[in-house]
Design goal:
With 266 residues, the chain is of the alpha+beta class. It has 5 helices and 15 strands. Strands 8, 9, 10, 11, 12, 13, 14 and 15 form an 8-stranded antiparallel sheet that branches. The protein has a 7-stranded mixed sheet with strand order 2-1-3-5-4-6-7, sandwiched between helices. Strand 9 (178-186) and strand 10 (192-197) form a beta hairpin. Helix 1 (22-33) packs parallel to helix 4. It is elongated and about 60 Å long. 41% of the residues are buried.
């Protein structure tokens, strides 16, 4: 038997929740390949089938892990369909999961080198995987092999990086006096997080416009009176709309994909 090496760090993200055993058995499948691997749970509380939320959380967690970390993410409403199971090698890490746009946020920010469709069943838990649990039977063991040093090209068939699925989220449009953006995530506190990067507004005067409503730009949540709308750069680095001591989601009733306008003024 080959020597088991310590290997790379592995993270897990899913919409499986914690009430059932799904997360535990994924970890068991990883341990069957290499029990020495260190596993970090990013979150398993993504709402069911919410690819947008999975995309956002993975995008914002990715930069905080060491180079060559293997990120296994499973938010997979298309499991068992013709959607591809994939692994991607980036300049600074790896992604394993379904090709459904879940990885598009990370890929927008970090350079991908190569990708494969996971067609080599030698690296699966079983050559006859469940039609409904690829996280256990394909993604977890493949991620464990990858974290243990198996080269990406051995895991399956090379695919064109340009063919990877994108999540349908409008890009920012920058003009001289404004930035048109969109809501990309609504967090646990009801903050409406846009896809406008905070670095775009540093040392500038700005506000956010939604329809006929103008929301002032602030530094912290405490800079507005309780119950008041404000906009600020969140800890994740994106411009967000919030309510001091409350929920912007409850006040504005926007959704992922809703348009916002950031306006600069003298």
């Amino acid at each position: 038997m080959n020597e088991v090496l310590p290997g790379r760090l592995v993270t897990l993200l899913s919409d499986f929740g914690l009430q059932d055993v799904y997360v535990g058995v994924m970890k068991g499948a990883i341990a069957q390949v290499n029990p020495s691997l260190t596993i970090v749970d990013l979150t398993h509380q993504i709402s069911p089938q919410n690819i947008a939320a999975g995309r956002f959380h993975l995008l914002n967690a990715y930069p905080y892990f060491p180079k060559e970390t293997v990120h296994i993410a499973v938010v997979d409403p298309g499991v068992g369909s013709e959607r591809r199971a994939i692994a991607i090698q980036l300049q600074d890490g790896f992604l394993v999961g379904p090709d459904n746009g879940l990885f598009s946020g990370v890929l927008d920010q970090h350079l991908a080198i190569a990708a494969v469709e996971l067609t080599n069943s030698n690296y699966w838990r079983t050559s006859e995987p469940s039609a409904t649990f690829h996280g256990r039977d394909i993604f977890a063991p493949v991620g464990a092999h990858l974290a243990s040093g198996v080269p990406l090209e051995k895991l399956g068939t090379a695919i064109d990086l340009a063919s990877l699925k994108q999540f349908p989220l409008a890009s920012c449009i920058r003009t001289e006096g404004a930035i048109a953006g969109t809501i990309q995530h609504i967090d646990h506190f009801g903050n409406l997080i846009t896809n406008i990067p905070g670095y775009e507004i540093l040392n500038k005067n700005w506000s956010v416009a939604i329809a006929e409503l103008t929301i002032p730009g602030k530094q912290t949540y405490a800079d507005s009176s309780p119950g008041s709308l404000l906009a600020l750069i969140g800890s994740h680095g994106w411009v967000e709309i919030a309510v001091s001591g409350g929920s912007a989601d409850a006040q504005l009733h926007l959704t992922v994909g809703s348009s916002v306008q950031l306006v600069f003024y003298a």
